[in-house]
Amino acid sequence: MNLNRLAYFAAVVDAGSFTRAAEQLGITKAVVSQQVARLERDVGTTLLIRTTRRVHPTEAGRTFHARCLQVLQQAEDAFDELAQAAAEPTGTLRIAAPNDYGTSAVVPVVAAFSARYAACRVELTLGDETIDLASGGMDVAIRVGWLADSSLQARRIGIFRQFMVCGAEFAERFTAGEPQDLGRLPFIANMALREPL
Predict the structure, then answer these.
(1) Alpha-carbon gap, residue 153 to 69, rounded angstroms
(2) CA 51 → CA 16, 61, 68, 150, distances in Å?
């Protein structure tokens, strides 16, 4: 079934003329006439009575015209639904994020996303353990640190700067002349990171 032919036929019936239908559709009269003739061949009956001044639908043409309008409206509705679904996400989005970064940076973004896309439900899981996306049921994981080799798609969304700090008393007791000396000093590190130093 060729929806364009149905649209051309409906336009001719509505306009009462091949010329006016072609003008409304923005195509040539020859194309409209040719496509309607092919439609009549496809359905195996005459749909239009053509006179020098006007075009009228046959009885079969009137019945077919009413059905064409329904089919064309349903097709338009289907396209509109698809376009709306593509424009506005629906369903459930499952996000995993680390505790600190998730609380400070991800929660406000999730709140704004939920306000904008009410048809989309967001499940945010905060935790410092690394979650396997494939088996963990998550759609997105936000991680702080270096990404291990993975077939997953990754994108950097920001920079998280790390600083080594110590109190004045510690600085008086311990010294490190070179960066590699730091590993020998007592320290507290975020072990959730793959390489805390």
Answers:
(1) 46
(2) 11, 15, 23, 71
Alpha carbon distances (Å) from 180 to 121, 169, 177, 193: 47, 21, 9, 19
Q: What is the pTM of this model?
A: 0.48
Contact 156, 127 (CB under 8 A): no
Look at the block and give the residue holding tokens 């001719």: 12
Q: Which two tokens stand for residue 119?
A: 């048809």
Residue 167: exposed, middle, or buried by beta-carbon count in 10 A (0-12, 13-18, 19+)?
A: exposed
pLDDT tens digit sequence for 117-175: 888 999 999 988 877 777 778 899 888 777 776 777 888 887 767 777 888 888 888 77
Roughly how many angstroms between the first and final C-alpha of the chain, as a whole number? 66
Sign of the CA dihedral running 176, 167, 128, 94: negative
What are the structural domains, with CATH classification, of the chain? 3-86 (1.10.10.10), 88-160 (3.40.190.10), 162-197 (no CATH)
Cα 140–chain centre separation: 15
